[in-house]
Specification:
- The protein is α+β, with helices and mostly antiparallel strands.
- It folds into three domains: 86 residues, 2-Layer Sandwich (Ribosomal Protein S5, domain 2); 40 residues, no CATH class; 139 residues, no CATH class.
- The chain contains eight helices and six strands; from the N terminus they run E-E-E-H-E-E-H-H-E-H-H-H-H-H.
- Strand 3, helix 1 and strand 4 form a beta-alpha-beta unit.
């Protein structure tokens, strides 16, 4: 069954003594494109995550967000870079003297300055990628579940539209012989009016009608269009990615419909052709969102 390229999935779990949340959003795209937003301490896993996502998605634009919901407990105590703090205080004293400012230097202000307080150290345990990839798999599986559900809905809609197109094509097929008979009678009447009292060459008229019928015959187009309908239905039952195949079949169906319209020269067939094109446009829009 087709799989939509639109979906969402999330997962949350433990990592390195803390907890992370993973969210994946996908939309339609010609190829597989992955956009990652990771905390700085998890960015080194981005390549592994991109590789893992290819196991779940073949096409679509996937945006993946990873964030800490609980920061890991630091293995090393908080330290103070005294030299850094002393340099900050000295710079502030110089600023006061240079500009003639009043006020005391606040401890809280100094502590907030970069690199004054030092967290962790060389003994800090390395974060492992396996738990992260497991959460990626869970979020991706949830995304795929939604994509599958929407894909089934798309398949039902597309199958209905193909059935509606078959109804229009059947009407065209029934009308085609009547259209030729009517063209024959119009030609006979026109020739008789031109000849007036002279004898009508029936053999020549039959020859001209045969040539006309050959030029406007749409039998081959109808046969090919029905074949495309069958191929489209078969594709809807396939288990692999079929979006590109459906798009191609849509283009081929439009080619046959356009040819029928150009050959028909008949009001009823022209109206049916309009209905066929309308359905094909909707099919094209739906197929663009199928993996």
């Amino acid at each position: 069954m087709p799989r939509s390229m639109t979906g969402f999935g999330a997962a949350e779990g433990a990592l390195g003594g803390g907890r992370i949340a993973v969210e994946i959003r996908t939309v339609n795209h010609r190829h597989l494109a992955v956009q990652c937003r990771f905390p700085a301490d998890l960015q080194r896993f981005e390549s592994d995550v991109r590789t893992r996502l290819r196991d779940h998605f073949e096409r679509g634009h996937a945006s993946i967000s990873v964030r800490w919901t609980e920061l890991p407990v630091r293995a090393a105590p908080v330290g103070v870079d005294v030299d850094r703090a002393r340099a900050v205080v000295a710079a502030l004293e110089q600023l006061k003297a240079s500009l003639g400012l009043d006020g005391d230097i606040d401890l809280a202000f100094v502590a907030r300055q970069p690199e004054v307080l030092v967290y962790g150290g060389e003994d800090e345990p390395a974060l492992e990628g396996a738990p992260l990839l497991e959460l990626i798999d869970r979020a991706a599986a949830a995304t795929v579940s939604i994509r599958d559900r929407e894909g089934r809905e798309l398949a039902d809609d597309l199958a209905t539209r193909i059935a509606d197109m078959e109804v229009s094509l059947t009407a065209i097929e029934r009308r085609a012989p009547e259209r030729l008979r009517e063209a024959h009678e119009r030609m006979r009447t026109a020739v008789q009016e031109l000849l007036a009292e002279r004898q009508l060459d029936e053999a020549r008229l039959v020859q001209e009608v045969a040539l006309l019928a050959e030029r406007v015959d749409i039998t081959e187009e109808i046969v090919r269009l029905r074949s495309h309908f069958g191929a489209f239905r078969e594709a809807l039952q396939a288990k692999d990615a079929i979006g590109r195949r459906l798009s191609f079949l849509g283009q081929e169906m439009l080619r046959e419909v356009n040819t029928i319209g150009s050959k028909a020269n008949d009001a009823m067939i022209a109206e049916a052709v309009i209905d066929l094109k309308s359905e094909l446009e909707k099919i094209r829009e739906q197929a663009e969102n199928i993996e």
